[in-house]
């Protein structure tokens, strides 16, 4: 690998002593690989043009990849394959396990999955369909509805996901629901304790968003499993991203469809943004308790607030001057004076748990 260097900025492939790695943290683990983030104390070799020699850039963060099934031949093939899409610095060996390790960094474009080396299906979200399906497949043994047809149906739905934002259809034990309240004759509202799986881009893995409000829709008039699953299949074709999964009431044995709570509890209309439980109409009403003392300014600010279409957008406001302290002049010219200051209450932001700003 070192003999293949043809340019000054090519990575210099090395044997790296394992004691060079500190701050070791597990990133991900499946039946094929374990990934760790580490800090390399001495760091890799780089060509120093000024001094005309190779020097080390110390304390850089890199990724270690442990293939679980190893023969020397398979491992070295994996290293060569990895070098195509990643900046591979070299190999090492864990002295405790004897396992060989690939030490690498992602390239600047970061478009390749660090586990399987294939292009992410969704590059922005760092989501790989193949690895997501492997993760779900590995968890098939961690749950069961105790009905083979239902288990097979759920497994089929899980491996059909195509995007990072797709809901992962699951079997949800009934004891996961609290605060159960009747909505109508065939539906209940409830809080799902662990909450649904969602893709976290930063850590490149599925995590749960706990204490999520859901609707439990009962199947009173459906007795046969096949009929119930057909109904879900039909619903998934039109409401795929509203359904979290299935459950069963242990007291009545009725099967339940678990769906997102899409209705605003204040006005009972559909949320403008279902994921964030955000209702534009109600937010505008909540922003009316203020005045600048000038009708034109008040109208201008209200127009800006009405233009908001997403809970993540900044709320334009009238800010009383007594809210501002630690005022320091930054710049002064004939056109304007600029100050830095601290805003005591601070800006408004949407709180998804409290469903208010």
Give your account of this protein's structure:
The protein is flat and about 70 Å long. 19% of the residues lie in helices and 31% in strands. The longest helix has 15 residues, at 225-239. A six-stranded mixed beta sheet has the order 1-7-8-6-3-2, with helices on one face. The protein has a six-stranded mixed beta sheet with strand order 9-15-16-14-11-10, covered by helices on one side. Strands 4-5 form a two-stranded antiparallel sheet. The protein has 357 residues and is of the alpha+beta class. The chain has three domains: 2-118, Phosphorylase Kinase, domain 1 (2-Layer Sandwich), CATH 3.30.200; 131-260, Phosphorylase Kinase, domain 1; 280-343, no CATH class. It contains six helices and 18 strands.
Keywords:
Phosphorylase Kinase, domain 1, six-stranded mixed β-sheet, 357 residues, alpha+beta, flat, 6 helices, 3 domains, 19% helix
Could you write a compact summary of the structure shown?
This protein is of the alpha+beta class and about 350 residues long. It has six helices and 18 strands.
Shape verdict: flat
- What order do the strands of the largest sheet run in, or round the barrel if closed? 1-7-8-6-3-2
Number of domains: 3
Average pLDDT rating = 88
The proportion of residues in beta strands is 25-35%
The CATH C-level class name of the largest domain: Alpha Beta
Structural class by helix and strand composition? alpha+beta
Biggest beta sheet summary: 6 strands, mixed
Helicity level, as a percent range? 10-25%
End-to-end distance, in Å?
Answer: 57 Å
CATH architecture heading of the largest domain: 2-Layer Sandwich
The helix count comes to 6
State the low-pLDDT regions, or none: none
Spell the H/E element sequence: EEEEEEHEEHHEEEEEEHEEHHEE
Radius of gyration: 27 Å
């Amino acid at each position: 690998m070192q003999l293949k260097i043809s340019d000054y900025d090519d990575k210099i492939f090395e044997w790296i002593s394992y004691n060079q790695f500190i701050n070791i943290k597990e990133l991900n683990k499946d039946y094929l690989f374990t990934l760790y983030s580490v800090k390399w104390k001495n760091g890799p070799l780089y060509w120093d043009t000024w001094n005309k020699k190779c020097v080390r850039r110390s304390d850089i963060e890199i990724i270690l990849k442990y293939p679980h099934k190893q023969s020397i031949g398979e491992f070295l093939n994996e290293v060569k394959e990895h070098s195509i899409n990643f900046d591979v610095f070299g190999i090492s060996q864990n002295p405790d396990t004897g396992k060989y390790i690939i030490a690498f960094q992602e390239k600047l474009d970061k478009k390749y999955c660090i586990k399987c080396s294939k292009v992410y299906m969704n590059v922005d979200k760092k989501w790989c369909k193949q690895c997501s399906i492997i993760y779900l497949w590995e968890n098939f043994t961690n749950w069961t509805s105790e009905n083979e047809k239902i288990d097979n149906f759920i497994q089929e739905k899980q491996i059909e996901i195509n995007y990072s934002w797709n809901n992962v259809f699951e079997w949800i034990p009934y004891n996961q629901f609290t605060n159960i309240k009747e909505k109508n004759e065939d539906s209940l509202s409830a809080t799902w304790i662990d909450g649904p799986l969602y893709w976290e881009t930063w850590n490149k893995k599925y995590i749960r968003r706990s204490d999520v409000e859901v609707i439990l829709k009962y199947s009173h008039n459906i007795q046969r499993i096949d009929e119930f699953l057909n109904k879900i299949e039909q619903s998934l074709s039109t409401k795929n991203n509203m359904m979290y999964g299935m459950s069963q009431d242990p007291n009545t044995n009725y099967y339940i469809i678990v769906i997102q709570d899409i209705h605003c509890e204040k006005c009972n209309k559909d949320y403008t943004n279902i994921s964030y439980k955000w209702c534009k109409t109600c937010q505008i009403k909540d922003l009316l308790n203020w005045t600048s003392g000038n009708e034109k300014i008040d109208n201008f600010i209200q127009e800006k607030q009405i233009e908001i279409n997403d809970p993540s957008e900044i709320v334009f406001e009238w800010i009383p001057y007594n809210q501002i302290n630690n005022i320091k002049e930054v710049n002064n010219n004939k056109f304007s004076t600029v100050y830095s200051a601290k805003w005591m209450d601070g800006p408004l932001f949407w709180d998804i748990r409290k469903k208010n700003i």
